[in-house]
Amino acid sequence: MRYLVVIILFVSIIVNAVSEKFFNxxxxxxxxxxxxxxxxxxxxxxxxxxxxxxxxxxxxxxxWKKVETTYLLGDLNEDYLDTPRYIDIFHGNNExxxxxxxxxxxxxxELFNAMYKYSHKTINALEYVLFxxxxxxxxxKNMALIIAKSIKSYLxxxxxxxxxxxxxxxxxxxxxxAILLNTLIAGxxxxxxxxIGDVAGLSKKFKNKPNNYRSEYATSGNSVxxxxxxxxxxxxxxxxxxxxxxxDISRQFKARxxxxxxxxxxxxxxxxxxxxxxxxxxxxxxxxxxxxxxxLMKAYYISLMDKLGFVSKVLDADGD
Amino acid sequence: xxxxxxxxxxxxxxxxIVISAVxxxxxxxxxxxxxxxxxxxxxVNYMDALNDAxxxxxxxxxFTNNPTIETMGNAKAAWLNARESYGQTEVxxxxxxxxxxxxxxxxxxxxxxxxLNAWPLDENMIDYTTDAKxxxxxxxxxxxxxxxxxxxENPLVxxxxxxxSDVLVALNENGGYANxxxxxxVIEFLxxxxxxxYANFIKDGVTHGALLAGQRALADYTINANADRRKQxxxxxxxxIIADLESITSAWADGDSTNYxxxxxxxxxxxxxxxxxxxxLKQIFSGLGIFxxxxxxxxxxxxxxxxxxxxDEHSCFSDNTHRDITQNFQGFKNLLFGTYNSxxxxxxxxxxxxxxxxxxxxxxxxxxxxNQMNTLAQVSRHFDYQIRPxxxxxxxxxxxxxxxxAIGDQMIYVAKSNGIDLTVRNIMNAEExxx
Lengths: 320, 435
Hints:
The structure holds 2 protein chains of 2 kinds.
Chain A: H1 2-10, E1 12-14, H2 20-47, H3 50-69, H4 73-76, H5 83-87, H6 97-106, H7 111-114, H8 123-132, H9 138-171, H10 173-200, H11 223-238, H12 246-252, H13 256-274, H14 284-318
Helix pairs in contact in A: 1-10, 2-3, 2-9, 3-8, 3-11, 8-9, 10-11, 10-14, 11-13, 12-13, 13-14
Chain B: H1 2-6, E1 8-10, H2 11-19, H3 33-65, H4 69-89, H5 113-117, E2 147-148, E3 158-159, H6 165-171, H7 184-192, H8 227-251, H9 260-264, H10 277-306, H11 321-337, E4 339-340, E5 343-344, H12 357-379, H13 383-386, H14 392-417
Antiparallel strand pairs in B: 2-3, 4-5
Helix pairs in contact in B: 3-4, 3-8, 4-7, 4-11, 6-8, 7-8, 10-11, 10-14, 11-12, 12-14
């Protein structure tokens, strides 16, 4: 974890980076899509359609991961720093929520009071309720609706926040670029280490102890789906033909080789992810994905940052 | 090229430029003034903590000799008072000093922090509670007259026939970190008793009220079973606190050329014990940053408010958490400004900073939020109500947490102003929970 934080504060940055198009076409579009997907899920739960519910949950996962991949609202305003935690507790909370949710289901307390913890209303809790409990029971169904509506409310809060601080993002391009790149790097570390390495038994923490059940959405089988969404969003950041992105900026500042390495590693990672299922983390496919995301991490953190780090020394010498 | 330069920026280097580092003169012959301030505040602060612990010991003795509502109230007041001075000493933690050093000759002072202030604790190990199903628990130290197994991982069974300081030391963290048997919070539990409703703290079904802390009955010390064992426990626990604080006070005492203070100031008669000035300052700045950011902001506030969890508030039996936060931050300000109890102790850590604007702004904002938290805790609702998701104050406490984290980050620049290079690595606890 310290590794990540060091990256976040010490990476050097180039300005004149991402454009308004990027903000509107990636950040805003992704959050709106996530809200729509949760609304559809709420409809499906109300209609008690198990097949659609399970399919739509996958769409919610995918669109939420896209929002999470470029989440920088907390840097624009600290009031939003903790908002993702209210939606998703993967690696952000040491609580064991499954027995807590079982207790809530089996108790007679009003759900409003019983579900008092933020963790009770996260996407992780929703997965457990939707995929392991009987939604024909009214209390379970009500819990699912409370969770889904809570997620929707936080997504709306994020959308409002982005709209409110859009001008700050676009006015201070240096800052915007910095936090976007930092978010990218931090997200890649989590992807490689937590979402793949821990499952494949390739991380330091779980070296040689692979276990598919450690994956992010093991209960619903949406772990690879989530990884694909993260990687696709990264492509939106560094390799889009539609607007000026980090790839373009890096080339402008003579980091062509470094950004090309990153894009190559990203493309390999996307191909590897597309070629595997949730059961493949513990075999060679999982290993290949770990290796390509590890290259991606190195490309961002070592090569690209180093290149941009050289740029920062100019400012130091400039003394301006 | 000039335009390009203006278009390039580095977070760190920008701040460094703005701050324009100023180093405090570090002479090989003269004692560094920052270390003098630090050490002298430690001397008086720990002395106050020791004296307040002794007063607590007297009041506990009075109470256990003659348990009445009045003597129980006096004991509680003494505990609250003791927390005021001890809370400020906590900034001396995490700096490889005698309170919690993990290596070095000065571990001989006992590194007693874990014995003094461990939390959260598993109160079920100490005395009865009301569990999540409303049943009274048993099988604890108080109600076990002979051999006691604390449970957990590879626990050692201990004879608790008579509850002494040695017995408590043997039990403390025996079987795991939650098996806390010593320190302020054990006494807190034995005086106040359970406040939290384990089934759901929002329901507050144990003590029923926003301004009510634990409501242990006086009868626990008079007619109820095991009253004498509770008395034994209280007196043994406070004796241990006093002994540990005596040890730490000796480490910081003036006029002793063999102690830790002398070594920190480069004046220990055994020159091999003297600590290099830069090493000392780096440890101190790093410790301060970790304490403010990882310990106070994250462990003591964030987990409580972001879960939310009454179990994770610092003084959950007495509902004194607002004072813990206040005094922890006061301790930080003591060192930053070189003051203690309104007296000037010399050069403060902040003095060398050229541009104090951001840090002072954060401190002012934190002061406001802490004052508000204190006021509400006195007249409206305790910390465990303020952290409830639907309470407007929860948002303020989250902001307080964020600002304390930002202050922790500022320690890099405070250190830089004083000629010490720190990175974010130096101000983060390795085990910090990502929040």
